[in-house]
């Protein structure tokens, strides 16, 4: 499968992560900005899938390339699955994750390990040049730590502890993270969908 994929994000860390995972497809992944598409997309869906597809469709209107978008969030069971689909906007879009992470840790003060269960959820949507729409979804289970640890991730990664590694997702190597992360797993599933589609359309 040749060509490129425009990923509906401006997050350079995310583009780097996605390129590592997608490299065996022989396709370059570029951001909206790199593709010269500058639009504001209102994420007003009520599910991760709706938000991902809103973004993918909005960008697809401007290009004949494959467009992909994701929506992801952190669900903390003790907090009724907050911040969930509103993760990016939790405490305001311009609030730093250091402040957001500290707030979540404060809200879990005194809560024991077994009740700190949480998961990252990622839904990915793709719109292909012929209008075909594809969806995938994956999760990673873990729990919320007691402090920020690690510098390899972004967002909520420093407080998300993965028991099987004994580390937060911000302490995992890029290779470890791409194997187990919600985005890594959802992208692997999307690669399967794209390969199936390519097989049908050869």
Structure description:
By secondary structure, the chain is of the alpha+beta class. The chain has a single domain (4-200), classed as Maf protein. The protein is 30% helix and 24% strand. Strands 1, 2, 3, 4, 5, 6, 7 and 8 form an eight-stranded mixed β-sheet that branches. A hairpin with a 5-residue loop joins strand 5 (117-127) and strand 6. The longest helix is centred in the C-terminal third of the chain and has 19 residues, at 182-200. The chain is globular, with a radius of gyration of 17 Å. The termini are close together.
Quick recap:
With 202 residues, this protein is of the alpha+beta class. Helix content is 30%, strand content 24%.
Question: Which SSEs are present, and which pair or pack?
Answer:
Layout: E1 4-7, H1 12-22, E2 28-31, H2 48-60, E3 66-76, E4 82-83, H3 97-107, E5 117-127, E6 133-144, E7 160-162, E8 167-168, H4 174-180, H5 182-200
Parallel strand pairs: 1-2, 1-3
Antiparallel strand pairs: 3-4, 3-5, 5-6, 6-7, 7-8
Helix pairs in contact: 1-5, 4-5
Please describe the structure with a list of short key phrases separated by commas or semicolons.
202 residues, Maf protein, 5 helices, globular
